[in-house]
Specification:
Layout (H helix, E strand, L loop, with lengths): L5 E5 L8 E6 L12 E6 L2 E7 L14 H10 L4 E10 L9 E2 L3 E5 L24 H13 L4 E2 L3 E5 L7 H9 L4 E3 L2 H10 L3 E11 L9 H22 L21
Parallel strand pairs: 1-4, 1-5, 5-11, 6-8, 7-9, 9-10
Antiparallel strand pairs: 2-3, 3-4, 5-10, 6-11
Helix pairs in contact: 2-5
Length: about 260
Amino acid sequence: MEKAEIAIIGGTGLYSLLENPIEVKVDTPYGSPSDRVAIGEISKRKVAFLPRHGRHHQYPPHKIPYRANLWALKKLGVKRIIAPCAVGSLQPHIKIGDFVVCDQFVNRTTGREETFYDGPLTTHISMAEPYCPELRKIIVKTGKKLGLRIHEKGTVVVIQGPRFSTKAESQWFKSFGWEVINMTQYPEVVLARELEICYANISLVTDYDVWHPRPLSAKELAETLAKNVENVKKLIYEVVPRIPRKRGCSCGEALKNAQI
């Protein structure tokens, strides 16, 4: 089976990321992943790409096979994951078109398959710092070099979906000072940690959440998303060759003191 050291989990706009990709079907104990995994190269580094929602966007956020997705990437040898996603802004200073490299999340989802450890082995994974600090630092530094409007940290609140928030909910999330809102970061980031894979998120701000008095038109949203996709491609192309071959973080030892 083909192998890859780095993976990108993203949306349909990122299909053209890889050079000379081949597609592989990966079986897992948790069923099939969202789609076949494309494996190719970026700057002579082996990279896998997995469309989070499937290539036809057939999986809504609450139905994504998160465990199968992460298991498949682990099976392919992946040790680092970069995970772009579209988000709404919860704060006036987080503007449309900005990038946020999240350092925290708040989970507001329910009923998702969120762990590989359902027993009999009891495992309590630490999530005090859920995102890989080494990958985050590289992404932030590279984004600044490219002149992107990039926020070094931020909290993403993850809602169940597929519906959007009410105004009351949005204002509640905003009142805590949380920066962005999304439907897919959880449990993806937790499952990566359980498999001792480094994971970093790049949040692409496509709109303001409904606390804001002026909603975007469909045309404005499409234009912002298209521009953000091009910028995230540029960012990933620059980040991948800067990732050191040897990990300098503790993500690869996440299970060391977690199991009872």
